[in-house]
Amino acid sequence: MRLAELQGRSVAVWGTGREGRAAVTAIAQHHPARLLAVDDSANFLSIPWEGELAELAPLAGGDHAQAALLAADVVVRSPGVPQTHPWMAELRARGVTVTGGSALWMAEHAARTVGVTGSKGKSTTASLISHLLAAAGRPNVFGGNIGVPLLDLPPAELYVLELSSYQCADLADSPRTAVVTSLFPEHLDAHGGEREYYRDKLNILAHSPELIVVNGADERLMAEVAGLTDANGFGPIPAGADDSRFRVEADGAVWCSDDPLFPRSYFKPRGVHNGRNLCVALAVLDGMGVDTHDPDLAAAVETYEGLPHRLAEIEDPSGLTFVDDTLSTSPYSAMHAIDAYQGRPLTVLVGGTDRGLDYAPLREHLRGLELTVIGIPDSGPRIVAELAGLPAVRTEVADDLPAAVLLARKVTPEGGVVLLSPAAPSYGRYRNFEHRSEVFAQAIRDSAV
To answer: Mean of the pLDDT values across residues 261-290?
Structure first.
């Protein structure tokens, strides 16, 4: 569905955050017969919905919220509204079209878009692709799940987007180049289960992209995309596996087929998983006709600094290395972070909103490793309990994140690493992941000698 198709129709925008505000502003320009904003949260009365927004779309909340949605021809769902919301089934049963702002935008811009998703690595890979394309003379606009709603993006000849599973779920058009970095169970409460999450995540590939690139080292992902083809009949291009065209070899170099391109050390982000993200990005550029052997591209790889809150190291006068990986919201992402610091004394801080995730994979990953794990509320004690009995894993529990930082200073040997990789979301105790990161950084400063 395109924005122009909303002309003369009754439209309800479900959600009043950044995505909802962007949708109201964009849809109003196409003259719907009626446009409402809907907020079904308990605190809808505290939403500052006034001025031009209120004129364009009056706010329906409380007892009026569901009725406003059911009376609409089209509901534009914000990403924060889960697929499992009890009203979703009724809307679809009544024949109400449910879409999202990202889907409306993609219908207009898919042919000029590189879309990147994945359970882990999508932010780094998308920003790296954008950085390298610009260095190769392909200026682009970078956006998506990083905080700028698609409907607020400026006009451009090329877009590189990080797309969440919530955004992918509503797409009826695939980006011209579709990229998947990894696949493991995540956000199951919002999607309804593991199969539903995979379906929604991989919907980015379902509408004839012209190029598909995936992480070839991710066995689960490779199994899920087996048999899929792009618009030209070709299967997904695997990158980062030992037998991929783009790969990191044991000699410490990044290779393209039989040619070494540059040392892996050129790429600052740590970890095997980030080496694979680099290979995925290079495969995308290669598929778009960029010469990956160009020395200027290698120089651009060297200048890439990485993103905040993703294995971001914080200097400390004690000699300990503190690492902010607060965007780790699953056991799998924490496992990648732990691997990035193998060979050094390691203390890991885990815990956050408890969504009932299975931490058995984390236990198996830590079997045979020597490290300390400190659990913080709410899920930290449950994670620590899951690790009980591992002979080389010392476990502790702290009352909060500042207490965990103080304890980590006491138990981490000189020259060691204190890694905040929570394996759980931030909401509940914190406003968002940025707030959790701020608390971590302040605790480091407050506890420094």
So the answer is: 97
